[in-house]
Write a structure and sequence with these properties.
With 273 residues, the chain is α/β, with parallel strands linked by helices. 33% of the residues lie in helices and 23% in strands. A 6-stranded mixed beta sheet has the order 8-7-6-9-11-10. Strands 2-1-12-13-14 form a 5-stranded parallel beta sheet, with helices on both faces. A 3-stranded antiparallel beta sheet has the order 3-4-5, with helices on one face. α2 (22-33) packs parallel to α10. The termini are close together. The mean pLDDT is 96.
């Protein structure tokens, strides 16, 4: 029996307009009846993920956990103290920030507590973030004001993945970090060894769930480690970066349809009969 279903948020669980399809709400309730836990897994912070559920039924996330910062942090819903958390040294983030100045990109710097600082944002990223994720703008000259603040990650913004791949190649390997791509517009640097696969394995261990009893749902390259780690993996029909061909199952449903309904129907209901 599947006991844990971890789903990426943006362009997977959430529709393109950042709303939650009713089919996903109904599917989460059915998962609970079947004895399975739904777990959001996002590159965003824990608080930002919860904000995405602000218009959903108040009990929808009762008893579950959130994997945030691409596997860097795990929280029980309702408890801001993480069960597990990873951060980057300030000098590592500062070095990446300074290297990023050589490229025509925007930047987000994420505090471990969920505050996001942004500079030089392209207009399309402003529209993407509007009503979706809160951030504070700064002038982009220096991040020395964050020297004594725990930092979770840094990412660079440009709606051109080919450009970002070339940027990553130019920057090269950065000791103590790992790089990934997401949402068709972000190049992210995380603590070494941190990814959504790590987050899923860590949470499964905490909950006493075997990895064969897990399902992962995603749409982008930052979801690939989770897709590879789970007992069953599903890609939404709007998946990018070839993820549809790497998951165990390519769904007919898009993020706008509510893909979790298809997950329940295809993989969970048959086990309940």
């Amino acid at each position: 029996m599947y006991r844990l279903v971890a789903s990426d948020m943006d362009e997977t669980f959430l529709a393109h307009d950042h709303s939650i399809p009713q089919a996903n709400i109904d599917a989460i309730r059915r998962m609970r009846e079947l004895g399975a836990l739904f777990v959001p897994a996002s590159g965003r912070s824990y608080s930002s993920v919860l904000e995405s559920f602000s218009s959903a039924p108040a009990d929808l996330l009762d008893g579950t956990c959130v994997i945030s910062y691409n596997g860097g942090t795990i929280n029980r819903v309702g408890d801001a103290r993480p069960l597990e958390s990873h951060s980057l040294p300030f000098e590592t983030v500062r070095g990446l920030f300074e290297r990023g100045k050589a490229f025509d990109v925007g930047v987000h710097v994420y505090q471990s507590d969920g505050v996001v600082w942004a500079a030089k944002l392209p207009e399309d990223d402003r529209r993407y973030l509007d009503g979706h994720m809160a951030y504070r703008e700064f002038d982009g000259a220096s991040i020395d004001f964050l020297r004594d603040t725990p930092l979770a990650k840094i990412l660079f913004v440009r709606h051109d993945l080919a450009f970002l791949h070339r940027m990553a190649e130019s920057v090269g390997a950065v000791p103590g970090t790992s790089a990934t791509f997401s949402s068709g517009r972000y190049l992210e640097y995380l603590p070494e060894g941190v990814d959504k696969g790590h987050g899923l394995r860590a949470l499964a261990r905490i909950l006493g769930v075997d990895m064969t009893e897990t399902i992962a749902v995603g749409d982008s390259l930052n979801d690939l480690p989770m897709i590879e780690a789970a007992g069953m993996s599903v890609a939404v029909s709007n998946a990018t970066d070839g993820i549809g061909g790497l998951a165990d199952y390519a769904a007919r449903s898009s993020c706008d349809d509510g893909v979790l309904a298809e997950v329940v129907e295809r993989f969970m209901e048959p086990q309940a009969r």
